[in-house]
Amino acid sequence: MAGIKRMETDIAIIGAGGAGMAAGIEAREAGARTIAFEQAAAPGGAAIISGGGCLIVGSPLQKSQGIHDTPDLAFKDWMDWGGPSADAVWARYYIEHTRDDLYFWAERLGVRWVDMKPQEGNSVLRWTRPERNGLGLMTKLIEAYRAKGGALALEAEITALRRDNDRVVGLEGIDRKSGERFEVAARTVLVASGGFNSNLDMVLEVRPDLRNDRIMEGSGRGSTGIGHRLVREAGGYLTHMDHVWFYVYATPDYRDPGQRRGLVFRQAPGYIWVNQQGRRFHNEALSGGNSASPALLAQTPRHAWAILDRPMTATLEIADPYYRDGDKVVRAKVEELLDNSPFIRKAATLAALAEAIGVDRSVFLAEIERYNATFATGLRNEPAFGKPLAASKPFDTAPYYAIQIFPLARKNFGGVKTDLRCRVLDKHFEPIPGLYAAGEVAGMAGGHINGRAGLEGTMLGPAIFSGRVAGGWAAHEAGFGAGFKGSPNRS
Ligand SMILES: Cc1cc2nc3c(=O)[nH]c(=O)nc-3n(C[C@H](O)[C@H](O)[C@H](O)COP(=O)(O)OP(=O)(O)OC[C@H]3O[C@@H](n4cnc5c(N)ncnc54)[C@H](O)[C@@H]3O)c2cc1C
Description:
Layout: E1 5-14, H1 18-29, E2 34-38, H2 45-49, E3 54-55, H3 60-64, H4 71-82, H5 88-108, E4 113-117, E5 127-130, H6 133-147, E6 151-154, E7 156-164, E8 167-175, E9 181-191, H7 200-206, E10 216-217, H8 226-233, E11 238-239, E12 244-247, E13 250-252, E14 262-266, E15 272-274, H9 292-297, E16 304-309, E17 317-318, E18 324-325, E19 328-329, H10 331-340, E20 344-347, H11 350-357, H12 361-373, E21 400-405, E22 408-412, E23 415-416, E24 423-425, E25 431-437, H13 460-477
Parallel strand pairs: 1-2, 1-9, 2-6, 9-25, 10-22
Antiparallel strand pairs: 3-5, 4-5, 7-8, 8-9, 11-23, 12-22, 13-14, 14-17, 15-16, 16-21, 18-19, 20-21, 24-25
Helix pairs in contact: 1-6, 1-13, 4-5, 5-13, 11-12
The structure holds flavin-adenine dinucleotide.
């Protein structure tokens, strides 16, 4: 195979997102040489475009607000929310390490944790946001990885794992710039390639029940599931793959040439949702994956319309880089979407809007009238579904908008099964020598840490934490350091 570029390293990391960068930092600190191979032109993965929120228990931010939180309480919330398929051992492991090995660790790398937001299923505030969200967090991790001497190969797509009998001994890949192939010899290989929710075919393969519905791709662009294939080919065990976490406050991205991607929109507390029969069906303030998604999926057909009047669009945010300038919303682009998307209808009257979206006019108008009437009652919550009214108003200012919403596959709660050292396990639950997996490819950590539902902040947090664990143990197997220990919070 003359002409193939050959490289050699101690640890080869696939993917330079949250897990990959955390793993690289850990492995470099243990003294191992690392190369992180990233198929995109820049590092960061889904993590850098994420909200950045991490579930953290017992943090100084909680203490400063008088919030008493303990690993026991968080563990109870976690298991109640995630259900029987949540991995209790990994959940406990993560929760106990969030304070010292995520919050303080990230602070030492320059990350500033700035505030917390309520999320469904949590008894107390613990979704903790870094300054400038995922961008701020990942910028610091990438800087730290580089500063510690970690190598980064960009536009380098890994296409195969190299094996010697049972042992994984390296990689093969392709340089996307030159088209040239390369081979890497490594003592250990660490797969941190993220999820598969930007590969609709793979989503529908694990969720055949949704094949007749419109489902949208909604993770980072690199979340195409290549890492899952590589691990499967090496004999790794994939588990809970049907645990796909959907959001429903999302509309098709009409600019996507493949017509597969969706756009998440937020900050429209005034809106209501109606189904294709023109009826409300849910408390729109509960928009999470464990409340709104099952509610939308129970409609026939499985889509709905988010109804807004003109003032309600003023705060609308689209969670996609095209509609943002860093952490600022570009309003002109939001207007462009409202005016041009074929999945958004606009009308001068509510009756005309009913026509435009093809719902029964009298049912729809009666629904709006009933909703509007609650504002005169002085109630805090409207009686039909309990939506809080404080940030809402009646529908009274034209033009009126209807944004068509469909389920969007955002996060993968199943993936590669690993042990607590992040060693990839085969179908006999034996570790495959030389092979590690962390982050979303491993269902965020271990295979299925969340179960069917996440408390939020339970994706990025476990991805980064498991990255650290994997980096420490991959370095140890390669002959560097004592493996990841960390400092559990047993209070
Ligand atoms: C818009 C958005 C907002 C989110 N907000 C939050 C939040 O606030 N809180 C939270 O907990 N979670 C959030 N998440 C989820 C969270 O960001 C991900 O679960 C997390 O980033 C996973 O980290 P990772 O390192 O496993 O994957 P990623 O960060 O996606 O990194 C994987 C990297 O691997 C690369 N890669 C894949 N295959 C290959 C290959 N064959 N060769 C080379 N490179 C490859 C990819 O290009 C990518 O850069 C959000 C997700 C999205 C999409």
